[in-house]
Amino acid sequence: MKRQRHPTVAHQSAPTEDASPSDTTAASNVPPRSGRRDEPIERPGLVLIQGRASRDPACRPSREAGAAARRNGRTGVGTRTQRRDTASIGRPAAAAASYDAVVVGARCAGAATAMLLARRGLRVLALDRARYGSDTLSTHALMRAGVLQLHRWGLLARLREAGTPPLRTTTFHYGDDAVEIDIKPRDGVDALYAPRRTVLDALLVDAARESGAEVRHETQLLALQRDGDGRVCGVTVRGAEGAVESIRAGIVIGADGRRSQVARESGARTYRSGSHRTGVVYGYWSGIGLAGNHWYYRSGVSAGAIPTNDGATCVFAAVPSTRFDEELRRDPADGYRRVLAACDEQLARAVDGARPAGRPFFFPGARGHMRRPWGPGWALVGDAAYFKDPLTAHGITDALRDAELLAAAVARGGDDALARYQERRDALSRELFDVTDAVASFDWDLPRIQRLHRRLSEEMNREVEALLALDSVPPASRSA
Ligand SMILES: Cc1cc2nc3c(=O)[nH]c(=O)nc-3n(C[C@H](O)[C@H](O)[C@H](O)COP(=O)(O)OP(=O)(O)OC[C@H]3O[C@@H](n4cnc5c(N)ncnc54)[C@H](O)[C@@H]3O)c2cc1C
To answer: Region 145-168: what's the mean pLDDT?
Structure first.
């Protein structure tokens, strides 16, 4: 194997390019946390009384939302409770609780958004049907911009304290050649990290709570509520004990993932779609003995080794979706070994000599989407708004980036601010989206994949510069 040290190229190198605009926060529009709770906040298009959404008596589930909730109520276990849920849809809520913002989904996008809104003084509820600290289907490499966000929010030290190992090199294996890149310490980013989602998502939830947000797990969105003008004005949810509750909100934020119910019910339009999808199998191994991130590329296959918490390394194998459907779906474990061996024999041998740490996971792939991320009374963030193939490992970084752009827009208030959120998200995402789709096509030879990586690297540098140009984020008022 030819090995070269390469200090500058590739997508996890340090920033070099110029920034995008910086005025994302509007401290003057943000109510002080200590302010009176009943003072109106002037925000065109978002009627908020500080500390609670306005009490519009007409706020109730829309016809489509009611139908969706009834469909929802008929699936899964616990039919009896669900029949009660269905009966309650459409009834005006008695003394509904009320928040400035309700965030549906409390993982990297939702918990980060809730934290940032709470730090700006808004009264926030985040809810998630999953349990606190649960895992989700995802490998978890953070790019520099993602690590930078955790640093800017004062959370990077906690990630390290949780035992997440710093990754000081990234090695790209193109066929038999290896290009090793040092991760240069800069702007508070000392290394890259790849925290397990059980660690990262819980850390963000804790930070959201410390910042003043209320977070409820095992709580499911049943339906959006709309007022007489069709504006989203709240949610109907089922809590951990099965009770159904109506909650009013100045804005409902869908951070509920790729198959977002908030996107569906609000009618968010998709205006950019990916053409390709990658099938992925991954597992965790102890004793792999690789330092730093390793990414492997060979005609028609790709793989990666990502050191994470508890001394384990996440090793994934990726192929075009058609090959996944024909070959890996039937026998993922065997297919996994074959793809690893085809991609890099040394990696396959390292896995053979390692101890499994947990069960294998597989993802058949999904085409990317870019959705309109806001409308009357609603907004989207994270995968709900914008998803791209995981092969470029950028979704969590996107979520942490866009959480801040959205929180600033919501705090500023008004349609213009939300339109600006969409513009900035698109400006930072379009090229990443297209390059990712090209990588996911597997229609490349080794020179072309390297060119695609250089384009990714340039975009990621631009992304870092844009984040560095943002105003600083208020610290948690109740920080431990
Ligand atoms: C195989 C795979 C590998 C990946 N690898 C990487 C990687 O290495 N690096 C990277 O940056 N990204 C990676 N990604 C992408 C990354 O996982 C996503 O971009 C990221 O999880 C998006 O976070 P999110 O908070 O938007 O959504 P999610 O993580 O999907 O969270 C959405 C939450 O919403 C909740 N929810 C949904 N519906 C409801 C409802 N009706 N009521 C209440 N709660 C609800 C769910 O319970 C869930 O907890 C990968 C993805 C896959 C599939």
So the answer is: 97
